[in-house]
Design brief:
CATH architecture of the largest domain: Orthogonal Bundle
Oligomer: single chain
Helix content: 55-70%
Number of helices: 11
Shape: elongated
CATH class of the largest domain: Mainly Alpha
Order of helices and strands: HHHHHHHHHHH
Low-confidence stretches: none
CATH superfamily of the largest domain: Hypothetical protein, domain 2
Number of strands: 0
């Protein structure tokens, strides 16, 4: 099969395996998801979920975050990597959302990426999880690894990986692929010893059992 058929088959098999993938970041509204996503850069979802309850208790919305003391925010999130920089950017993000967007997240990637700490990957997660809008494909470390092992790309830069994936994966699969490839990489196609025997793609993956 050609590369387009192959990419579609990968997406179809992942969708069958994960029909409705959801982020593992615990949240109850758009503010909580956005903050959790910002904190998750170079930090596990599990660790983020440990610090957010106290953070959300003290700062329950964008307005309270915009007026927060950076040092206080830092104390609440000091278990995540690079917490000092993240604390500063969280407060700035709150200020931008309140001042420029009236306290509500914009629903497109172009405007979302104007908010401090929200780069393209984070914006993709937010639009897909909250509103089911797929303007692109989420590329994190798991998706990078899975895509390279599957031969869908040879790139290592997330933006270039996303560009390659968007060219060959049909748009109607973008939303599912984003979530299912993350989960597949987290639990099956793991970094050190991938569980090829448990993989739904082992009959078509060029890296299987190698």
């Amino acid at each position: 099969m050609d590369k387009f058929e192959y990419a579609k088959e990968v997406a179809r098999k992942l969708q069958k395996s994960h029909p409705e993938p959801k982020t593992e970041l615990v949240h109850s509204d758009e503010y909580q998801l956005a903050v959790a996503v910002m904190l998750s850069a170079q930090t596990t979802d599990k660790k983020v979920n440990q610090v957010t309850p106290e953070l959300f208790k003290k700062y329950p919305n964008w307005e309270s975050l915009a007026n927060a003391d950076i040092g206080e925010v830092g104390k609440l999130i000091n278990q995540v990597n690079f917490y000092k920089g993240k604390a500063e950017r969280l407060v700035k993000a709150g200020q931008v959302v309140v001042a420029e967007f009236g306290g509500k997240l914009p629903k497109n990637i172009e405007e979302l990426t104007k908010i401090p700490s929200i780069a393209r990957k984070s914006a993709n997660v937010i639009t897909q999880e909250l509103w089911g809008i797929a303007e692109g494909i989420v590329v994190d470390t798991h998706v990078s690894r899975v895509s390279n092992r599957l031969g869908l790309t040879k790139e290592t830069d997330p933006k270039k990986i996303e560009r390659d994936l968007m060219k060959i994966i049909p748009k109607n699969y973008w939303r599912n692929f984003s979530g299912s490839a993350v989960l597949h990489g987290r639990y099956v196609c793991i970094a050190r010893k991938p569980k090829c025997q448990d993989c739904v793609l082992n009959d078509i993956c060029p890296s299987a059992f190698k």
